[in-house]
Amino acid sequence: MKTFKKSEQFLKRALKTVPLGSQTFSKSITQLPLGISPFFAKKGKGAYLWDVDGNKYIDFVNSLAAITLGYNDKKVNKAVKKQLKKGSIFSLSHKLEFLVAEKIKEIVPCAEMVRFGKNGSDATAGAIRIARAYTKKDIVLVCGYHGWQDWYIGSTTRNLGVPQATKDLTYKFQYNNIESLEKLFNDHKDQVAAVILEPVNIAMPKDNFLEKVKELTHKNSAVLVFDETVTGFRYANGGAQEFFGVTPDLATFGKGLANGYPVSAVAGKKEIMDYMSEVFFSFTFGGETLSLAAALATLKQLTKKPILKNIRKQGEYLNESLEKLINKFQFNDFISIQGDSCWSFLVMNSTEWATTDELKTLFMQVMFQKGIFILGTHNMSAAHSKKDIDKLMKGYESFFTILTKIKKGEKIKDYLKATPLIPLFKVR
After folding, report:
1. Is residue 212 part of a domain?
2. Which of 390, 361, 289, 308 is nearest to 36 (CA)?
3. Number of domains the chain is built from
4. Strand, helix or coil at 78?
């Protein structure tokens, strides 16, 4: 049986100096139930993660979908080591800045010009700022998760510290509901600067939704922004915009751009991106060369090999295998697999004998003990093998076997060894 003694010792120590003991909500005690979870990593290699207690896991979280090639990719490591010998940052710009920008322009349909940040939040905030400058309007319409900065997070329940005046400039619309977007345009006529959305998340677009969003946005003289922080360099080399054939005015990237190194990008039409010359979007570490070297090495691999095609193939095998198990256990009434094969979601609805939060906590408890690190999504990487997926299915079978007993009358609380988690917040 896996234990997490050292992880919990580290957590206790970290909590004395670090709020929540982590830099990221999703890696903290808010989303990893105390008593059943590891909290600190030691190393990663390929599809595998080791925690500080020495426990080994097949990782389906992949650093919140930032890893697409696998941990410690040899070619990325080689490029970073080569650049490290020359330096990571200088008093002048470096050629890697335009080399990576040129590569993104080559790959991404909307990319005519590119600027870099460090996190997805930098990129989305930059896109919104230049959209406001370009349109000379203020209101933003959002759908999905777009980072921690005031302009967006003020529209969520995690809005503590955001001025009301800022909250009043952002409004949510519903995915696959074009009428909800149309209503917001009517309610804020001639005031909308931008529409920003994740082009795809748990639900796939229906009835030409993305095309309709683009048409409606342009009809109202607003800028269309695709937040491709997750979907970029995952759904296709050119992102979801290439995959679905809908080109936005601007797009933001992060996560898999550099296979885990901290860099993000705003890319889009030259006439809008030119506003970056006046709008203040500037970072001391915006041109940091180790991350850019990693990005270039990652993008070169994506364009030279069928990496994303293989990821999709493995993801299809995962989804098909899981669908069979759900059918076998006759859990279709409360469990489903949704999303795309490269980024799919296990959806568990509350039942009369267990809440969604209880189900998810038990799921994590079982999977962690089985040597699988998963939080409810399958963030596929090129390092995942059929063998890894087969082991994941054995974990699912163990979880489903326990659920069968609970469904027949046993209490889920008797199985849980931790307090059920509480969702961070709902964005859709």
Report:
1. yes
2. 361
3. 2
4. helix
pLDDT value for 428: 55
Asked if residue 141 lies in contact with residue 178, where contact means CB atoms within 8 angstroms, the answer is no
The encoded tokens of residue 81 equal 């080591």
pLDDT value at 425 more than 90:
no
Is residue 257 located within the same domain as residue 371?
Answer: no
Assess whether 198 and 215 both reside in one domain.
yes
DSSP 388: H
Q: How many residues does the chain have?
A: 428
- What is the residue range of 319's domain? 5-60+307-414
Q: Which residues contact 95 (CB under 8 A, 6 or more apart)?
A: none
pLDDT in the model for residue 360:
97
Q: What angle do CA 326, 315, 23 make, to 5 degrees?
A: 95
Q: What is the pTM of this model?
A: 0.95
Q: How many other C-beta atoms are found inside a 10 Å radius of the C-beta of residue 196?
A: 28
Which residue intervals of 17-142 are DSSP H helices? 62-65, 74-84, 96-107, 120-135
In 189-274, where do the E strands start and end? 192-197, 223-227, 250-253, 264-268
Measured distance CA(345)–CA(422) in Å, rounded: 18
Which single residue is written with the structure tokens 């094969």?
341
pLDDT at 424 over 80: no
Q: Which amino acid is at 399?
A: F
- Residue 28 contacts residue 375 (beta carbons within 8 Å): no
Sheet holding 41-45, edge to edge: 41-45, 48-51, 56-59, 372-373
Of the three residues 265, 289, 304, the one that is the final residue of a domain is 304
- Domain presence at residue 423: no
In the sheet with 170-172, reading across from the earlier edge strand, the strands are: 113-117, 264-268, 250-253, 223-227, 192-197, 139-143, 170-172
Contact predicate 379/64, CB 8 Å: yes
State residue 121's pLDDT score. 96
Question: Using one digit for the tens of pLDDT, what is the confidence trace for 141-169?
Answer: 999 999 999 999 999 999 999 999 999 99
Cβ neighbours of 422 (radius 10 Å): 11
Per-residue pLDDT tens for 46-102?
999 999 999 999 999 999 999 999 999 999 999 999 999 999 999 999 999 999 999
CB 389 within 8 A of CB 317: yes
DSSP string computed for 58-70: EESSHHHHT-SS-
Distance CA 50, CA 55 (A): 6
